[in-house]
Amino acid sequence: MFKTRNFILLALLVVLVACQAQTDLSQPPEIVYGEDVCTECGMIISEPRFASAYYTQDGEARSFDDIGGMLTHHAEQQEDVAQFWVHDYETEEWIVAEEAFYVSGKELHTPMGYGVVAFSNQERAQNFADQSKAMVMSFAAIMQVYMEGSETNEHSDS
């Protein structure tokens, strides 16, 4: 009787573990706008065009209301990241962060004042930057700015 019960418990445990949903790191995390909160600042994420996210190597999602908040959080926490995601500022579609073009400038108004937006197209990014007195950067370049703690990543409290 004891062996049978242990076998049944072990079998149930194996079934439960096997049935757990695996995180698909090739797809962006789901954000419920107007409900989910930013991992960095704790404020509600309400505007898709500014939202960003990443998965850790363990499959845990981190969501942000501002791209600059994501970059700051990553620079501070140094988590092993499987994939970064950002939204196109105009289309609001998710983009793999490494494939996006970033416009960064002090005149850009973003939820937490970091002044960073993303585009899936370099020409649209450059046109927006020209109109905004801002500059276009790659993901590697903007990540380096935040990792080094440059003054350009300090957000305003306005």
Describe the protein's architecture and organization.
This protein is α+β, with helices and mostly antiparallel strands. The protein has a single domain, classed as Beta-Lactamase (2-Layer Sandwich), CATH 3.30.450.410. It contains 4 helices and 7 strands. β1 and β2 form a beta hairpin. The longest helix is centred in the first third of the chain and has 18 residues, at 2-19. The protein is elongated. The N and C termini lie far apart (69 Å).
Features:
single chain, 158 residues, alpha+beta, Beta-Lactamase, four-stranded antiparallel sheet, 4 helices, disordered C terminus
Order the strands across the largest sheet as they lie in space.
2-1-3-4
What would the average pLDDT be, to the nearest integer?
87
Helix-residue proportion: 25-40%
What composes the largest sheet? Answer: 4 strands, antiparallel
Q: Roughly how many Å apart are the termini?
A: 69 Å
**Low-pLDDT regions:** 16-20, 150-158
**Mind telling me the C-alpha Rg?**
20 Å
Under CATH, the topology can be stated as Beta-Lactamase
Count of strand segments: 7
CATH class: Alpha Beta
Number of domains in the coordinates?
A: 1
Q: Strand content of the residues, in percent?
A: 15-25%
Architecture (CATH level 2) name: 2-Layer Sandwich
The 3D shape can be described as: elongated
**Number of helical regions:** 4
- Structural class by helix and strand composition: alpha+beta
Order of helices and strands: HEEHEEEEHEH
